[in-house]
Backbone:
């Protein structure tokens, strides 16, 4: 994982890197606490459709996990997004492979074994099948997605039924892209014993900021604090 | 408000009292931090049907609000419950009047103006109409309830539509007493702009303990910290 640049803002180290996957260099960013020495959990953040690895929502979440929890966070430009916007690809399969390659690299560098995943909308379209197939992810926040009739919907539903890790699912009750019934059907389908659903009024991109408190509590509950030995 | 007894356990002062309402002395308990001087919010805790003012769930919540947040908490035996189990009464109207009398007394004693309400199941049957009609309550956690066809359901729904304060509604997805549709209809009916819904798998009395973290965040968000001046 080649580090391209590094900057430090308010105690948060931000490193841009390139992750080689197959013949491509996937651009990403890693955040961690300045001078942190203890083993700490890492949250993988999967951005939404049309977004990229450093949109305000992703950056705000990453800094929060670092500053509030002492965690690390990492984001990649999804296939066809951010610095890769010229590509057209089948996003889910390639996105899953890239997250997997990232975990391999993080493991090699000794950052395991506590990993979480956060991603809504396209971050769930890619992330749900990814975490369902990836035993290294211990807990995941997903949302703004549902079961439906689109291409690939059957595979998505099967992946949801195969989930076993704790899931926090976040839905918007007036989501213009995900109907109430579709979202609730996804919650029903999730196979995990521990799953919890948060619903707020408003549209697709209007998850209230206070849900970030819930993400923090959720990850600390399942991945432990930065001070807890892995 | 006559204090009948006081004990202190692990920094939490617990006072039993009797609140005169009409011709009756309603038994209650008040909890607050030992030696606390700052103005602090008070959470009214309404217990569930067949329970009383000091069942483990109420006691645990009260101590949590005191120890974690520096808040005060107060509970009453609902009509026909606890020390009042011999009575049969129309619970909702009398329960509302008793909470109102308690607020009057707390105001007189200088404990206002920051009040919250926590109560699920019967605590919502009494508490929802109470907080809808009571401008002194700033935020409420409600749940394990829905819209339906029982006697009084129309008044309950009207009260829900009249709510304006922030509400955290907690539902159990396999609640043997409250159907999914009925619970979601209550969420829809709540008139408040800020309302949030948490759903977990399991039956009526199986709300996961981690939701207590959510109650805390919710009250702190809306009532402020104990250190914030009222």
Residues:
């Amino acid at each position: 994982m080649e580090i391209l640049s590094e900057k430090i803002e308010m105690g948060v180290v931000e490193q841009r890197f390139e992750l080689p996957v197959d013949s491509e260099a996937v651009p990403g960013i890693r955040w961690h606490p300045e001078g942190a020495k203890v083993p700490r959990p890492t949250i993988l953040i999967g951005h939404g459709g049309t977004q990229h690895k450093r949109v305000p929502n992703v950056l705000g979440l990453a800094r929060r996990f670092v500053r509030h929890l002492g965690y690390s966070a990492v984001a990649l430009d999804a296939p066809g997004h951010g610095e890769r916007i010229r590509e057209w690809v089948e996003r889910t399969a390639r996105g899953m492979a890239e997250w997997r390659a990232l975990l391999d690299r993080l493991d090699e560098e000794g950052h395991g074994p506590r990993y979480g995943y956060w991603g809504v909308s396209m971050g769930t379209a890619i992330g749900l099948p990814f975490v369902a197939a990836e035993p290294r992810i211990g807990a995941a926040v997903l949302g703004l997605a549902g079961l439906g009739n689109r291409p690939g919907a059957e595979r998505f539903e099967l992946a949801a039924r195969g989930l076993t890790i704790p899931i926090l699912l976040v839905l918007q009750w007036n989501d213009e892209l995900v109907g109430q019934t579709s979202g609730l059907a996804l919650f029903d389908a999730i196979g995990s014993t521990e799953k919890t659903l948060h619903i707020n009024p408003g549209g697709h991109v209007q998850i209230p900021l206070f849900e970030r408190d819930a993400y923090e509590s959720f990850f600390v509950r399942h991945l432990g604090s930065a001070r807890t030995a892995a």
